[in-house]
Design brief:
By secondary structure, the protein is α/β, with parallel strands linked by helices. Helices cover 41% and strands 19% of the residues. The chain has a five-stranded mixed sheet. Helix 1 (26-37) crosses helix 5.
Length: 165
């Protein structure tokens, strides 16, 4: 009996964050909402938690990678979208410990010679990343906007994939 290896989904959505650190959980909450709203088999949803180097294979195997996370900014609840050359600057903002890990993950993937063709980040500026469960009101109010921004990215990539087929 032979096994066929399934190729990875053409789109990977990676949620990162710590669910016990207040607004730092926003990436994981967005991931769950997207998983429910866009159950396309061409999209793989990955809970990256606070993972560091163990995320290297996820990044390496992704053709198109959408990262969901809390991001630095002045106004809590603001939704930001980053791509291309904006990513290193965003990832170096060191909002939380796992973002330093993401910089390391991307560096390792590059050194190993396999990295995503396209990377986008959709994030929400947190009000508090202190030890607590649940997100603040500004982050909660931003969830629909962030989900919409992430769905726009996924939908545009799905159109690209369909056009290439």
């Amino acid at each position: 009996m032979s096994e066929t290896l399934e190729s990875p989904a053409p789109i990977t959505v990676l949620g990162v964050g710590n669910p016990i650190m207040g607004d730092d959980a926003v990436g994981l909450l967005l991931l769950e909402r997207l998983r429910q709203q866009q159950p396309d088999p061409r999209v793989e949803y990955v809970d990256g938690g606070t993972g560091g180097m163990e995320l290297v294979p996820v990044v390496q195997d992704a053709a198109r990678l959408l990262i969901l996370d809390a991001v630095a900014g002045d106004e809590p609840g603001t939704v930001h979208q980053f791509s291309g050359d904006q990513l290193p600057r965003m990832l170096s903002s060191k909002l939380s410990p796992h973002q330093v890990g993401l910089l390391d993950v991307f560096a390792a993937a590059r050194m190993l010679g396999r990295e995503p063709e396209q990377v986008e980040v959709v994030g929400v500026v947190p009000e508090s990343v202190d030890l607590c469960l649940g997100v603040s009101e500004p982050v909660s109010e931003a969830m629909d906007r962030a989900v919409g921004a992430a769905l726009d990215v996924i939908d545009s990539w799905l159109v690209e994939i369909s056009e290439q087929s």
